[in-house]
Amino acid sequence: MNPRFSWPDERLIKAAQGGDIGSLTTVVMKSQPHVRKFALSLCASPEDAEDAAQEALIILYRKIGTLRATGALASWMFRIVRNECLRQVRLLVSQRDEAPAEPEAPPARSAEDAVLHGLEVERIAAAIGALPRDQRQVLIMRDLQGLPGRTVATALGLSTAAMKSRLHRARSALRQALEATDRPPGQAADHPVKGDPAP
After folding, report:
1. Among residues 172, 79, 89, which one has the least CA distance to residue 123?
2. Does pLDDT of 186 surpass 60?
């Protein structure tokens, strides 16, 4: 690996944790290319990746003292970026779900309904976050952000037919992932339970 893009060494990280501003600034600067690479591989779009990378670098700057092992900087930053990308997906899922279908105000949600809704949003966001990057991108852009198919295809450098094919695979993979989390433990995928009453 090009040394220009190496992670900061332990001595530098310890100095940053000790409050040395110069060392802290260097740690953030040397971590930036790696954090951006993580974000681009995990987030739905370059814009989301930039937001996630910036947020992760801010957390690094403010909370480097909470890093327990200096050798764990890369895995810590990866988790922060992943969590930020998932937060963006959760927000999109929630906004999409909350969009009013009719002009009248929806009935007030009970506390139990709010908790269940939050768990469902979390489950969907986690399933989307686990998709391969190419599928995650097209699904988020088309289904969550509501971008026109032609716009999505152009943004991803695909033909419309290729974009539709990728979107179909993404939707199928997401459906299978969500069905898998719906099944009771030990329930085989090819033997769905039929006739179960709705909860």
Report:
1. 89
2. no
pTM over 0.85: no
The 10s digit of each residue's pLDDT in 73-91 is 988 998 898 888 888 887 8
In sign, the C-alpha dihedral spanning 76, 45, 132, 136 is positive
pLDDT of residue 192: 41
CA-wise closest residue to 44 among 148, 164, 116, 128: 128
127 token code pair = 């399933």
State the burial class of residue 102 (Cβ atoms within 10 Å of its Cβ: 0-12, 13-18, 19+).
exposed
Please count the helices (runs of H) and the strands (runs of E) in the chain.
Answer: 8, 0
Q: Are 122 and 166 in contact (CB under 8 A)?
A: no
